[in-house]
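Quick log. Single chain, no ligands specified.
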Amino acid sequence: PPSLVHYIDSLRKTAALDIETVLPGHGPPVTDHGRLIGDRISFHERRKDRIAEALGDTPQTAHEIALTVWGEVARKEPFLTLSEALGHLDLLENEGRVTVVADGDLWRYTKA
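-> predicted structure:
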């Protein structure tokens, strides 16, 4: 499932709630959840745009995109960088900005 798409949707729904205090699982209580959520959504918007820029004009795999965005970190931390790239590619696909081109078992992403 496109977990980052669901996460962002859940953040937006939570931001719309009339809440005084949020008690997160980690860290201190949050008294301005709208600002915190806005910051998180803004981060993902910037990352999503960076992934879209890295895509360029040639279809690429998520690994190729991760190498462009994170360089050698993508080789040392492939699970982390692939998860991040795929999550943001899901957001871009959901917005109609990228499409997936299947080549056997290999998926490449291209600008829509």
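The chain has a mean pLDDT of 95.
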